[in-house]
């Protein structure tokens, strides 16, 4: 319950705060997001995707230097067994990542695995 409330507050903070404050939180987000994206509670996974979508929408291209750390959890979350979480992850991925970059990411994943 605490993580759910914290994620909702984080999403609000991402939407309402100055961009410099949001970018200051960015170095810490990949580790938290990776853990929250696979949480056992589906509502936490959904809230993590909402918070991640708000963060990425707010910072835009600044996410590029952290994409390597975020891509795994973000990609896997698109196939979450809880449809709302998967849908949010897919929508935020498609809206924020260009088609060219998506192709490059898929090729990289294909070569790695």
Automatic annotation (TrEMBL):
Residues 6-96 form the E3 ubiquitin-protein ligase listerin N-terminal domain. Transmembrane segments: none annotated. It holds the Pfam family Ltn1_1st. It catalyses: S-ubiquitinyl-[E2 ubiquitin-conjugating enzyme]-L-cysteine + [acceptor protein]-L-lysine = [E2 ubiquitin-conjugating enzyme]-L-cysteine + N(6)-ubiquitinyl-[acceptor protein]-L-lysine. Belongs to the LTN1 family. E3 ubiquitin-protein ligase. Component of the ribosome quality control complex (RQC), a ribosome-associated complex that mediates ubiquitination and extraction of incompletely synthesized nascent chains for proteasomal degradation. This is E3 ubiquitin-protein ligase listerin. It comes from Melipona bicolor.
